[in-house]
Amino acid sequence: MKIQKATLHDLDALTELFDLYRLFYQQKSDLEGARGFLKERLTNEESRVFIAYDNQNPVGFVQLYPTFSSVSMKRSWLLNDLYVKEEVRGQGVGGNLLKEAIHFAESTGAKGVLLETTEDNKKAQRLYEKVGFKKESNYFYYFSI
User: Fold this and answer.
1) For a 10 Å CB count at each end of the chain, is N or C smaller?
2) Which UniProt keywords apply (predicted)?
């Protein structure tokens, strides 16, 4: 397995994975929309994406968005998207993508990597904790539109 920073050269492979990711979250397939969204993120350097290949076969990706902490005066990274193809789950792809995200954050001098998941996503929670993420217990998260 090879994990690399995604570039526009990886756009077709990444688009397929991103569409599958969205389908996992009960969204309608939209390859054109996915391609445009990802192309804009990569072109404008608005996110950092790492893609995993098994030989030449794209099998997963992780996408990080920058954020900042005023209190610590440091950058942090929001791990917004993580997806591994169903047929290769349990083979270490997700863990390796998470480790790559953490390594990248460390290399940028970031305060850390933040992610969120649903309360019932126990499989993902076990994976996150296995690679070193800690569940926050002293923060509440609010959302408004």
Assistant:
1) C
2) Acyltransferase, Transferase
